[in-house]
Write a structure and sequence with these properties.
The chain has eight helices and 19 strands. By secondary structure, it is an alpha+beta fold. The strands form five sheets. Strands 9, 12, 15, 16, 17, 18 and 19 form a seven-stranded mixed sheet that branches. A four-stranded antiparallel sheet has the order 1-8-6-3, with no helix packed on it. A four-stranded antiparallel sheet has the order 5-4-2-7.
Length: 431
Amino acid sequence: MASELKIPRLSENADVVSVTEIHVKEGDSIEQDQILLVVNADKSTADVRAPQAGKLSKLLVRVGDEVKVGAVYAHLESNAGEASSPVAASPPASEPTASVAPAGAQQRKNDAVEEPSPSDVRAIKADVAAHAATALLEAPPGTIVASPATRWLARKLGIDLTSLRGTGPRGRITEDDVKNAVGRSSPANWSGAGAVATPALPDFEKFGPVVREPLSAVRKLTARQMSVAWSNIPHVTQFDTADITELEAFRKSREGKGPKVTVTAFVMKACASALKQFPHFNSSLDLASGHLILKQYVHLGVAVDTKGGLLVPVIKDVDKKGVNEIAQELNDTAEKARNGKADMKGGTFTITNLGGIGGTGFTPIVNWPEVAILGLSRSRMEPVWKDGQWVPRLMMPLSLSYDHRVIDGADAARFTRRIAEMLENPWLMTL
């Protein structure tokens, strides 16, 4: 005998659900509590499970369908000997079960069954509800115990729930477990598109002619690293401006008295000082062990635009060097990068300067496994209220992107402001 399977009410405010996944097809033998559909209801995702075991004789919905709550979505043929209505959960093994049937019971098995009293019905419903409420926490070993919301998040982030150990009650996998699993991913297990699988591209040639250009090794590496960083780091960008009027005058006054000193060299010196005052900006997050790794050295990566693409060579121990020494090493390192010979390992913080090209600001991507990156944009003269009057000042935009799991907004503002203050008072930096 066939029974009708109807869409249950999954949210108080949702009278219609959208079918996003179908896990069975007509003719399949299914088990009780097996996931048949996944639907969206009131901005959340939920699993629709089989109320009993049987054979799916007819499926009435397709992916993308909008279905009303209570509407029939499938027909289920019950297994031989089973009732066609939903079967209540079996009582726990610890509970006493019925003893041997009384004499004559076998002969009366085909007789009409006495209808239970209203009080019996209420007791049965309460018992079933109690078992349903605890079933998720009493799942046998090997069963994935997670709420529909957690399962939806795992699908969205590309996390395999079978690989996780739940931290919730009795091993239940929580949303935090899924989010932490994303944070533990690394380039070693990067699949080419970050945590979430990239959908297949359309056939662009249907719309017109195209030319395919192979990616260079540098471009492939950049794409890989940026995907890892963007997938794993919750980015926030703090913006500020620095008055570099005196800095530019000071810099020009030293022309011809040593190596060519650029604004970037002063920014590197200022960053090295600020990183000592704010050590968690000079760290890496290890979610697997639950530690923040604070580095006792300051190795700064500086983005360099080359013909082959963007490279980030690293200058070591910047905190131990003066501006002149930093400037000389910066010039040498940039040349090595353009020739493919620069050291690009061991960086603790990155600086990227687009001021020579233009722009008023941008949001740089943190260079994983670092936790922050500073972007510089083109300086320009602006009117500034100073000493009771408007005066022209050379202002440089600063853009600090940071990992919000490690750095709070207030500290990001303080860190950026500290760098600005040092650039506004260049004599504070030792040459």
